[in-house]
Design brief:
Elements: E1 6-11, H1 16-25, E2 36-40, H2 51-56, H3 58-68, E3 72-77, H4 85-91, E4 96-98, H5 99-108, E5 114-118, H6 123-134, E6 140-145, H7 156-172, E7 178-181, H8 190-197, E8 201-202, H9 204-218
Parallel strand pairs: 1-2, 1-3, 3-4, 5-6, 5-7, 7-8
Helix pairs in contact: 5-9, 7-8
């Protein structure tokens, strides 16, 4: 593989199941001409379910990205909450996209009011802080939790049933016309959720990778004077 070719999607938790689900969700994007490699962070917790856990993965995430820099075309941080997003943008001139930020920006171009399906109630305040910082609270229909841990998301029947229940509540009671899956561990359930709720569903890893590929191909980055040195 030539240096600078690969888009690295880094899952900051250590779960092999979550990482495999993210990798599976990349299938529609692989023909677009940028190699995609999905990695887990062995130093991370099995699931990132709190602000403390999100903050604790930043240092090993930055170290992992630094080791990958020479072969990278860009990075996606595959945790809803975008831990280390701004620190990694400080560290590298390559395109860096966080899945939460990308999902929200994609939802804003898909519907008028977006609803978020979180994993746990403790995740919701963290999401709301991010949405407030982005200035999008007036477009938020609601952010409701499944009450399931990251590990429990592996139970497909239970998870899909609960996601459909929450998705329909966001649609019928809160006025959402587009849904965001608020955890990378939900990646494999997008099609079923969309079919059951009748709403467009944003899978955040797909949204972020699609955005990152566009930036790589166009030579765009957060860094000034990026030029076309990283364009495909």
């Amino acid at each position: 593989m030539m240096a600078g070719e690969t888009l690295y999607v880094i899952n900051p938790n250590s779960s092999g199941a979550v990482t495999a689900g993210i990798d599976e969700a990349m299938a529609p994007l692989r023909p677009l001409g940028v190699p995609i490699e999905v990695l887990r962070l062995p130093e991370g917790p099995p699931g990132i379910e709190s602000q403390a856990q999100a903050d604790q993965v930043i240092a090993p995430l930055l170290a992992a990205a630094g080791r990958l820099e020479n072969g990278a075309a860009g990075f996606v941080i595959a945790c809803f909450g975008d831990p280390g997003l701004y620190a990694l943008r400080d560290q590298t001139r390559l395109p860096v996209v966080g899945i939460q930020e990308a999902a929200v920006m994609t939802a804003l171009t898909t519907g008028q009011r977006f609803g978020v399906i979180a994993i746990l109630p403790a995740s919701v305040p963290r999401h709301l802080r991010a949405f407030g910082a982005m200035g999008v609270m007036d477009r938020l229909a609601g952010d409701l939790a499944l009450g399931l841990t990251v590990a429990e998301l592996a139970d497909a029947d239970r998870t899909v049933a609960r996601m459909v229940e929450i998705g329909c509540e966001l649609k019928d009671r809160h006025g959402a016309d587009v849904l965001i899956m608020g955890c990378a561990g939900m990646a494999r359930y997008r099609d079923r959720l969309e079919a059951e709720t009748g709403l467009p569903v944003i899978e955040p890893c797909q949204a972020a990778v699609a955005m990152a590929i566009g930036r790589i191909k166009l030579g765009w980055s957060h860094a000034v004077n990026q030029g076309a040195s990283h364009a495909g």
